[in-house]
């Protein structure tokens, strides 16, 4: 049997109600902390719990930093607790420290031989040393005042868990809790749902493929296949024929000698078709380069247009020349017109001069006439002094003015007018001639230009327009002949290419049909309805595997439950006498004088687990009832203490002490004495650490435990120094 | 006898098949080595493995059982005609 560890010494500083360093030595059998409420008893017990596990079960977390642990008055803002555990030949010092504002704490374990471990290593070592989890500590070592109530009054799930732990089924319970049956159920449901969807999909796709197959078959038959010919072998033969034809066409067009992929499998058919189509497209492009149909057509169009333009220009030139000749015949040439115009201008100038002289004469005569009419008695000329007769002179002058001068002036005036009119006519004729000349020149230039273009097009010298027109006509006929030849050649190649294309289409149609057939065959293999094939059922293997896994885990759970029930039954049976004894001693109920714990199975989180009910029994009348429905709070405390104390050494662990925080709450004097007597029995084998405010209970414990092994500590508290030992 | 042996004996008593006993050994070894999380992870890994294969097979089936192409809606076909004339 393993010797358990006892607690020798505790040092606390800056932890909750404890501020200044506090060192406590523990008694060999029992240590009792007696102090009124609020003096730091629970802080001391909590320091032990925190030191071992780094957390407090009944401490509500206020925030992530969890600063409630560190005493606010501590000068360094630091909490520290150190426990010394020992058994013969071994001594361990476990210390934990935490600073205010920091999230974690630092754990150190010092063992025999100066071995020292920190944090994760220390935590693992501590677990192996004590054999306790944090939860187990509460069920097997630390009877917290909250835990006493929790054992009986909390919700069934927690009570069942607590009792499971008391019965040493913690491992089985943890294994049970860790098996994710819900995950498995969800996975099974999910895979079933997928199977259903896939079945529907396969069914739909089968219909679609059937339709496609029918369509492909129809298309293939339209392209000249018999149904029996729709094989890959035929496809291969056709592909070889196409290859030969493609080579021939490529040779004809002078393009690259295309090598089409060989058809060996169905997948090759699609590649072959794609490549063949591409080759045909390239052959068409090469054909355009080889047969210059467009260039020839363009040349023909040029020749026709040039011939038309030249003919038109020639006609315009001829018309202009004819018009010119007509006008020249009518008015003479430009030179004639110029000469005539010059002559006429000279004559008109002479006439104008004569007219001016006549005008001066006429004025002089008129003035003389006026003079002599006024001086009718004059007898000699005032100029030459010659003797004159004024009256006869007036008559003669009047005759000259009225007759000779007037007639001459009128004649000259008429001649000038006619001359000017003639000059205008000559000018108009000149202008007309100049216009015609310009037009003729322009037509001539047009003809020259077209002749140049014609020369450039035909590539040799031309005699004149007529010769050019004849040459152009000859060239047009030659190009027309050439074009017809090219068209024939193109038609021939196009026909060959179309034949290749038609053959490729046939192969494609064949490939489509065979592909559909293949897909249809694959689908048939996957079809759920077709059980003839080994892999016929979609996701069936996976579904079966998950179902097997589920079934196996359910078997394991059932086996665990059976073992757990059996173990719990054994634990209850094994401690039945003690429970009854403790209950009778503690409770001393006048009617219900015994306790019985019944086990059943309850479904929790998808897994069946042990469920417990504690029944109070009347031995005399053989009746029973649920304990929590009939017993008072104090009596229920007695029930909880009975079960807890009877089971406290069931868990296999290494801590040889029992911590009880205010176990006498709600108990009267008689019950306190009874509890102390039971604890006295425990003190023979385990160290007791009891915190109580109850002097009466403390005294009862002192009396019940052998005096030499009991240490009692009084506590006092001040805001400055926190909890301190009194006295 | 420890928990492992007890449950194994119970499984044998119930004539559990060999794979179930093997699974229990895996579960308890996982628990002892890595705690409850290891057991959960073990089962989840097995489920994941099956799901992975199921996904692969599902993909194969989906590749074979292709969905028919969606038909153009009348409105879309009309728009297409309007665009292309």
Account of the protein in words:
The complex is a heterodimer of chains A (727) and B (85). Chain A contains 18 helices and 15 strands. With 727 residues, chain A is an alpha/beta fold. In chain A, the strands form 3 sheets. Chain A has a 6-stranded antiparallel sheet, covered by helices on one side. Chain A has a 6-stranded mixed sheet with strand order 8-12-13-3-14-15, with helices on both faces. In chain A, α7 packs antiparallel against α14 (540-587), α8 runs parallel beside α9 (266-290) and α10 (293-331) packs antiparallel against α13 (465-526). Chain A has 4 domains: 1-131 and 654-727, 3-Layer(aba) Sandwich (Rossmann fold); 156-202 and 539-651, 3-Layer(aba) Sandwich (Rossmann fold), CATH 3.40.50; 223-290 and 471-526, no CATH class; 294-462, Orthogonal Bundle (Helix Hairpins). Chain B is an all-alpha fold. Chain B has one domain (3-84). Chain B is rod-shaped, with a radius of gyration of 27 Å. Chain B starts with a helix and ends with a helix. Chains A and B meet through α6, α7, α13 and α14 of A and α1, α2 and α3 of B.
Give the low-pLDDT segments of chain B: none
Percent range for β-strand residues of chain B:
under 5%
Question: What's the tally of helices of chain B?
Answer: 4
CATH class descriptor name of the largest domain in chain A: Alpha Beta
What CATH architecture of the largest domain in chain A do you see? 3-Layer(aba) Sandwich
The total strand number of chain B stands at 0
Percent range for helical residues of chain B?
over 70%
Can you list the strand order of the major beta sheet of chain A?
2-1-4-5-6-7
The total of helices of chain A stands at: 18
N-to-C span of chain A: 40 Å
Biggest sheet of chain B: strands, sense, closure?
A: none
Q: Tell me the quaternary state.
A: heterodimer
Please name the CATH topology of the largest domain in chain A.
Rossmann fold
> Which chains have the largest interface?
A-B, 44 and 38 residues
Which ranges of chain A are low-confidence, i.e. pLDDT below 50, for 5 or more consecutive residues? 528-536
Helix content of chain A: 55-70%
Tally of DSSP β-strands of chain A: 15
């Amino acid at each position: 049997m393993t010797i358990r560890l006892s607690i020798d010494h505790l040092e606390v500083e800056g932890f909750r109600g404890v501020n200044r360093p506090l060192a406590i030595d523990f008694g060999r059998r029992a240590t009792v902390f007696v102090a009124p409420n609020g003096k730091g008893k629970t802080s001391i017990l909590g320091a032990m719990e925190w030191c071992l596990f780094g957390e407090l079960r009944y401490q509500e977390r206020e925030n992530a930093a969890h600063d409630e642990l560190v005493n606010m008055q501590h000068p360094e803002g630091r909490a520290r607790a150190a426990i010394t555990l020992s058994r013969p030949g071994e001594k361990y010092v476990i210390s934990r420290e935490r600073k205010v504002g920091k999230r974690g704490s630092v754990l150190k374990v010092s063992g025999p031989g100066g071995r020292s471990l920190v944090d994760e290593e220390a935590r693992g070592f501590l677990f192996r040393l004590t054999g306790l989890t944090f939860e187990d500590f509460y069920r097997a070592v630390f009877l917290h005042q909250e835990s006493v109530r929790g054992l009986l009054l909390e919700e069934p799930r927690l009570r069942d868990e607590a009792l499971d732990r008391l019965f040493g089924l913690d491992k089985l319970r943890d294994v049970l809790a860790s098996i994710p049956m819900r995950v498995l159920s969800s996975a099974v449901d999910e895979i079933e749902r997928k199977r259903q969807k896939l079945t529907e999909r396969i069914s739909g796709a089968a219909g679609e493929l059937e339709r496609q197959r029918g369509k492909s078959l129809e298309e293939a038959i339209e392209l000249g296949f018999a149904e029996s010919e729709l094989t890959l072998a035929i496809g291969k033969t056709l592909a070889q024929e196409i290859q030969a034809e493609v080579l021939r066409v490529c040779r004809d067009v002078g393009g690259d000698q295309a090598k089409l992929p060989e058809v060996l499998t169905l997948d090759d058919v699609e590649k072959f078709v794609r490549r063949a189509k591409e080759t045909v497209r390239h052959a068409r492009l090469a054909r355009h380069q080889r047969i210059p149909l467009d260039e020839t057509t363009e040349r023909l169009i040029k020749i026709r247009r040039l011939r038309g333009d030249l003919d038109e220009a020639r006609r315009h030139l001829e018309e202009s020349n004819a018009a010119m000749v007509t006008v020249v015949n009518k008015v003479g040439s430009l030179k004639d017109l110029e000469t005539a115009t010059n002559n006429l201008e000279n004559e008109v100038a002479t006439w104008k001069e004569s007219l001016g002289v006549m005008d001066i004469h006429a004025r002089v005569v008129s003035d003389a006439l006026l003079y002599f009419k006024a001086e009718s008695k004059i007898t000699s000329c005032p100029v030459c002094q010659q003797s004159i007769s004024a009256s006869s002179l007036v008559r003669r002058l009047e005759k000259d003015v009225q007759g000779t001068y007037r007639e001459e002036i009128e004649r000259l005036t008429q001649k000038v007018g006619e001359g000017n009119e003639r000059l205008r006519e000559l000018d108009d004729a000149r202008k007309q001639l100049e216009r015609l000349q310009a037009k003729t020149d322009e037509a001539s230039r047009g003809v020259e230009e077209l002749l140049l273009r014609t020369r450039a097009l035909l590539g040799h010298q031309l005699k004149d327009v007529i010769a050019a027109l004849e040459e152009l006509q000859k060239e047009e006929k030659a190009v027309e002949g050439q074009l017809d030849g090219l068209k024939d050649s193109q038609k021939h190649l196009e026909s060959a290419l179309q034949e290749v294309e038609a053959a490729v289409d046939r192969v494609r149609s064949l490939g489509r049909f065979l592909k559909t057939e293949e897909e249809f065959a694959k689908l048939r293999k996957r079809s759920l309805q077709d059980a003839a094939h080994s892999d016929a059922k979609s996701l069936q293997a996976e579904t079966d595997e998950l179902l097997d896994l589920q079934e196996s885990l359910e078997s394991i759970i059932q086996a665990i439950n059976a073992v757990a029930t059996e173990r719990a039954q054994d634990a209850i049976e094994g401690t039945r006498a003690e429970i009854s004894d403790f209950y009778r001693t503690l409770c001393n109920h006048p009617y219900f004088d015994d306790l019985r714990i019944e086990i059943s199975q309850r479904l929790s989180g998808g897994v069946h687990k042990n469920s417990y009910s504690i029944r109070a029994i009347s031995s005399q009348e053989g009746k029973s009832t649920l304990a929590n429905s009939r017993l008072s709070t104090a009596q229920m405390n007695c029930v909880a203490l009975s079960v807890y104390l009877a089971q406290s050494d069931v868990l296999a662990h290494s801590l040889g002490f029992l911590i009880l925080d205010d176990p006498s709450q709600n108990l009267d004097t008689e019950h306190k004495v009874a509890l102390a007597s039971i604890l006295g029995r425990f003190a023979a084998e385990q160290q007791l650490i009891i915190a109580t405010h109850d002097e009466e209970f403390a005294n009862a414990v002192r009396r019940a435990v052998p005096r030499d092994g009991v240490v009692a500590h009084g506590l006092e508290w001040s805001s400055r120094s926190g909890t301190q030992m009194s006295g | 006898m420890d928990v492992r042996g007890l449950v194994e004996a119970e499984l044998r008593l119930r004539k559990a098949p060999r794979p179930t006993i093997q699974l229990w050994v895996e579960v308890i070894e996982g628990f002892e080595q890595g705690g409850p999380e290891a057991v959960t992870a073990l089962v989840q890994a097995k489920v994941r493995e099956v799901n992975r294969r199921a996904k692969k097979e599902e993909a194969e089936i989906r590749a074979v059982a292709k969905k028919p192409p969606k038909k153009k809606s009348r409105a879309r076909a009309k728009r297409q005609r309007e665009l292309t004339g």
